TrEMBL record, chains A, B:
<keyword id="KW-0133">Cell shape</keyword>
<feature type="active site" description="Proton donor/acceptor">
    <location>
        <position position="180"/>
    </location>
</feature>
<comment type="function">
    <text>Provides the (R)-glutamate required for cell wall biosynthesis.</text>
</comment>
<dbReference type="GO" id="GO:0008881">
    <property type="term" value="F:glutamate racemase activity"/>
</dbReference>
<keyword id="KW-0573">Peptidoglycan synthesis</keyword>
<keyword id="KW-0961">Cell wall biogenesis/degradation</keyword>
<dbReference type="GO" id="GO:0008360">
    <property type="term" value="P:regulation of cell shape"/>
</dbReference>
<feature type="binding site">
    <location>
        <begin position="6"/>
        <end position="7"/>
    </location>
    <ligand>
        <name>substrate</name>
    </ligand>
</feature>
<dbReference type="InterPro" id="IPR015942">
    <property type="entry name" value="Asp/Glu/hydantoin_racemase"/>
</dbReference>
<dbReference type="InterPro" id="IPR004391">
    <property type="entry name" value="Glu_race"/>
</dbReference>
<feature type="active site" description="Proton donor/acceptor">
    <location>
        <position position="69"/>
    </location>
</feature>
<comment type="similarity">
    <text>Belongs to the aspartate/glutamate racemases family.</text>
</comment>
<comment type="pathway">
    <text>Cell wall biogenesis; peptidoglycan biosynthesis.</text>
</comment>
<dbReference type="GO" id="GO:0071555">
    <property type="term" value="P:cell wall organization"/>
</dbReference>
<dbReference type="InterPro" id="IPR001920">
    <property type="entry name" value="Asp/Glu_race"/>
</dbReference>
<dbReference type="Pfam" id="PF01177">
    <property type="entry name" value="Asp_Glu_race"/>
</dbReference>
<feature type="binding site">
    <location>
        <begin position="38"/>
        <end position="39"/>
    </location>
    <ligand>
        <name>substrate</name>
    </ligand>
</feature>
Length: 260, 260
């Protein structure tokens, strides 16, 4: 069973992509809505929460963990791999691989939460693989609350995006990483504001593809459900109306959220 | 010793007002930054966090608790009074008393978090005391992240405020309650947008005055420090750079935050 956790509901963009690519696999999701958001908090606190989330998913029978949160991926992956003896997939590596495969100029932008940008993980990972790359990172802390409020097509959201993206405009990037699993919901607003020729890398979709290849390379770690239909369960640490609304928007269907 | 807690740093507007009005009293503050914000979360989760915060402040020697958070005041006061045998002061009652004293038309607006507005506590408390009052409540969930980001004078914040306040404009209110301890930082933006004739009630200042009267009426519950200088300690459950910046802005001095 594939266990996926996130600070809240943003990671459901990863779960949705996994559902579509791997329809025969069972999924267990945990959204830590009671402590959301992670991106404004300290590394120590984020690691503590990530340990607890992973323990929950393992107790419920997961054989593999996907950290569907760029913030937790950035600061907690190493610690989770030390503590737990199952494969830990995170969202940064898949996005970094996509950047290296697709960028032609080697000039790349990263947008994410404050904690993700402060960790500098994208720049370190990209330049470790190719020192020629120039990486420009930018924290956009208000985008998570705007998405969680459902303000996806509001004029204020467009203005805030324009203000955030402005420092990237003259950097001549050809690739921009959506380094937060909430941001794919803003793709239609980000693309025209950063320029139509800039290639957007969606860490959610890249992670689902990465997971698909990983499972193909490591058969036996996570079993398909065979003749049984795949189960999907979505747990949350707090149950709120707006979480239910955003979840339904992400999956384009009503989703039953189960309170832990 | 006066114990004060909040979901994060907004409650420091209450602590600041208490420092100014009651300079001889020692203050212990706890900001639950690791779990902030409360206003988007469920009542059960907010009660759970409020119990833990109160326990911490009592263990550290508080003789009286101030809930410096409208959200926690709205949903957790009753439970804290059942559990703990010390006076529990909250921020709703002082604001309600100010409304009844100052409103001449009896048409009153309330702005607050989603949880505060959902609890309906202001409307219930005001109309219980005077059924003639008309109360119009409005959730403004993005104001807390905007304040915590320090976007206090940005154009986007002004636009979002205008959008939020719009439904109140034709209600002919003469009084507006800032029903969240973050909002006093936005007074200068709110006043012109709601109209200069509308009287703003700041729950932080009202609570400090209420506490002053309470202590005068109940001498002996909380002792003054006598010849000792009053101590002030500011604890947080997570330590972040932006929390330190906003805290310094609220107190107009650098503030030493202690990690719990």
């Amino acid at each position: 069973m594939i266990g996926i956790f996130d600070s809240g509901i943003g990671g459901m963009t990863v779960a949705r992509a996994v559902e579509q690519l791997l329809p025969d696999h069972s999924i267990l999701y945990l959204g830590d809505i009671a402590r959301t958001p992670y991106g404004t908090k300290s590394a120590e606190t984020i690691i503590d929460y990530s340990l607890r989330n992973t323990e929950f998913l393992l107790q419920k029978g997961s054989n593999l963990i996907v950290i569907a949160c760029n913030t937790a991926s950035s600061v907690a992956t190493e610690r989770l791999r030390q503590e737990f003896n199952v494969p830990i997939i995170e969202v940064v590596t898949p996005a970094v691989q996509a950047v290296l495969a697709r960028s032609r100029t080697g000039r790349v932008g990263i947008i994410g939460t404050r904690a993700t940008v402060r960790s500098n993980i994208y720049e370190r990972s990209i330049t470790a693989l190719d020192p020629q790359f120039k990486v420009f990172s930018l924290a956009c802390p208000l985008l998570v609350p705007l998405v969680e409020e459902g303000w996806i097509n509001k004029r204020e959201t467009k203005m805030i995006l324009r203000r955030y993206l402005h420092p990237l405009k003259d950097k001549q990037i050809d690739t921009l990483v959506l380094g937060c699993t909430h941001y794919p919901l803003l793709t239609n607003l980000i693309q025209p504001r950063i320029g139509n020729r800039v290639n957007l890398v969606d860490s959610s979709i890249e992670t689902a593809h990465y997971l698909q290849r990983f499972l193909a390379d490591h058969p036996g770690i996570v079993r398909k459900n065979g003749d049984q239909p795949a189960t999907r369960r979505y747990f949350v640490t707090d149950l709120t109306e707006s979480a239910q609304q955003v979840a339904a928007k992400i999956f384009n269907r009503p989703l039953e959220l189960e309170l832990v």
